[in-house]
Amino acid sequence: MRVLVVGAGGVGSAFVSIAATREVFTHITVADIDLDRAASTVARVVEHGGDVRFAAAHVDASSRESVTALARAMRADVILNACDPRFNPPIFFGAFDAGCNYVDMAMNLSTPHPDDPYNRTGIRLGDGQFAEHPTWKNRGLMALVGMGVEPGFSDVAARFAADELFSKVDEIGVRDGADLVVDGHDFAPTFSIWTTIEECLNPPVVYERERGWFTTEPFSEPEVFTFPEGIGEVTCVNVEHEEVILMPRWIDVDRVTFKYGLGEDFIDVLKTLHRLKLDSTTGVDVKGVNVSPRDLVAATLPDPASLGDRMTGRTCAGSWVKGTGLDGEPREVYVYHLVDNAWTMKEFGHQAVVWQTAVMPAVAIELMATGVWSAVGIVGPEALPPKPFLDLLDDYGSEWEWEDYRDRAPIPQ
């Protein structure tokens, strides 16, 4: 499988380090607007035992034509979009024009409802991509959207539970929490602050069978969720996320939510950024220079990919599923993936959050390469068989787990 990775940031670089250990990836081109950054990613892999399977290239991710030209030149079978979701449209359509399959880890951005943003959806996450399903299907191409850890693993986990553990699913709640600590920083997000601001300050989406998709206010419905393996109780709140859009399309379920364990301090910072309009992506004039406030915030914070040697702790992602078990009795389970930062730094040299995100598309693309995952059109992870993915994820050296959770159900705060 020949892969073009667009974006040599933390997740893109971690993907390359992971893929270097797998023979199915016959060639990987790492491309970025900053050629030096792409070259550094390749050099790092070669230094740690990589080979001529890897190349660096320049690409302008905001240009459909630039993506198409590079994909054709590299004879790519699939493009992995490792950029912020604002670049999705040109990369997505660039892959289509080049006749490539496509994988991303976050779907097209949403636009809140203009009149009633905290009750009604406007343009939902991924609407622009799903609108292209007929054209991709007619071309015989596959666009696998939302294939990171969340969305991604969480969707596979939910599909596994629905198929293997339940006769009826009432509710799926994706829950993300951690006990990670970054030494030396009062505020240092472990993932892209640009994306974090986008998903946390947009109106969260909830799905209910009778209402369909609707929205609430940011940080609504706080609850205490007990995460496994000693992470313990974490307060989680509603956040806009793709799983709520994806799961009801392929899983028969009454309700879907996504809640994130942000912590009070983190929420306070995000609220302050919003009050000061520093979350805005609209440029403002600063002494003759047009500056996006959100880009400025991102530039003032440490690069999440650089924090690994100052991080301790673990991150946990998964799906809590409630319904009727195969024996006809009420059941609740949590299917999860937990990663220790010490392990990812030792084995791959990447911090836990970016590594956990990057390993999931690596597994998915390997399944695409071997034909185990095969589809045409725009598909989410839950549209494909979950067991092969989970078995291969174990083979990558990072096991997933599930536990019965009736005694640890979420507690409204």
Can you describe this structure?
The protein is α/β, with parallel strands linked by helices. The chain has 14 helices and 21 strands. Strands 7, 9, 10, 11, 12, 13, 17, 18, 20 and 21 form a ten-stranded mixed β-sheet that branches. A seven-stranded parallel β-sheet has the order 3-2-1-4-5-6-19, sandwiched between helices. Helix 1 packs across helix 13, helix 3 (64-73) packs across helix 4 (88-98) and helix 13 (352-369) crosses helix 14 (386-395). The longest helix is centred in the last third of the chain and has 18 residues, at 352-369. The protein is globular, with a radius of gyration of 20 Å.
In short:
This protein has helices at residues 10-19, 35-47, 64-73, 88-98, 127-130, 133-139, 153-164, 193-201, 243-250, 264-275, 293-300, 341-348, 352-369, 386-395; strands at residues 2-6, 27-32, 54-58, 78-81, 101-104, 142-144, 166-178, 181-182, 205-208, 212-215, 223-227, 232-238, 253-260, 284-286, 289-291, 311-312, 314-325, 330-340, 377-379, 400-404, 411-412.
Compile the SSE list and pairings.
Elements: E1 2-6, H1 10-19, E2 27-32, H2 35-47, E3 54-58, H3 64-73, E4 78-81, H4 88-98, E5 101-104, H5 127-130, H6 133-139, E6 142-144, H7 153-164, E7 166-178, E8 181-182, H8 193-201, E9 205-208, E10 212-215, E11 223-227, E12 232-238, H9 243-250, E13 253-260, H10 264-275, E14 284-286, E15 289-291, H11 293-300, E16 311-312, E17 314-325, E18 330-340, H12 341-348, H13 352-369, E19 377-379, H14 386-395, E20 400-404, E21 411-412
Parallel strand pairs: 1-2, 1-4, 2-3, 4-5, 5-6, 6-19, 7-13
Antiparallel strand pairs: 7-17, 8-16, 9-10, 9-13, 11-12, 11-21, 12-13, 14-15, 17-18, 18-20
Helix pairs in contact: 1-13, 3-4, 7-9, 7-14, 13-14
